[in-house]
Prior knowledge:
This protein is α/β, with parallel strands linked by helices. The protein has helices at about 10-25, 50-65, 85-100, 115-125, 170-180, 195-205, and strands at about 1-5, 30-35, 70-75, 105, 135-140, 160-165, 210-220.
Amino acid sequence: MRVLVVVAHPDDEVLGCGATLARHADEGDTAEVVVLGRGALSREGATPSDADELQRQAHEAARILGASGIRVLNLPDNRFDRMDLLDIVKQVEAEIHRVNPEVVYTHHAADLNIDHRRTFEAVVTACRPVEASGVRRILSFEIPSSTEWQSPTVPPGFLPNVFVDVTRTLERKLSAIGIYSGEIRSAPHPRSIEALTALACWRGASAGMKAAEAFVLVRQRI
């Protein structure tokens, strides 16, 4: 199976579906990651070298998870809304054509982070269900400190209906997120190791597993 993960920033791929990506790799699937933005540069005092280090960490995290490849593009951090959606769609389309995935993972439609929302829109547009498309399934994941921080008055809420058993690969996800030293936080922050472990255990308990990652099924062609 060919799998493509499309995210806005380095670390989103680990937070959202890192353990699932590792499971795909273990099962012999080709799992590639595309990161649309360099990240980091919207932060106070950040420099291009910070973004370069984040890119290095992204490649190391991908190696830990067993990803077949990772590409980090150059969209402006937390400024995707300043771009025409078509320009983002074209970049995603190029990656879809390159990888020809059967399964695509990406952000949830209503995340607090604007780059996440624009990424979702671009992915769904680029994966239009035309007859020639090889994409059979699109899944949205949650990003701790973005998905649950959105106001409940902003639809749609993240109501997962797909749960992937990651009992055997959760530790690799935690190892991979640890590579992003500037992104991990101390408990009780949602991006702490403790919170990420608790979330996986809760999502697992919701579906009768020890640990799981949860997704919203956007589209499936059978």
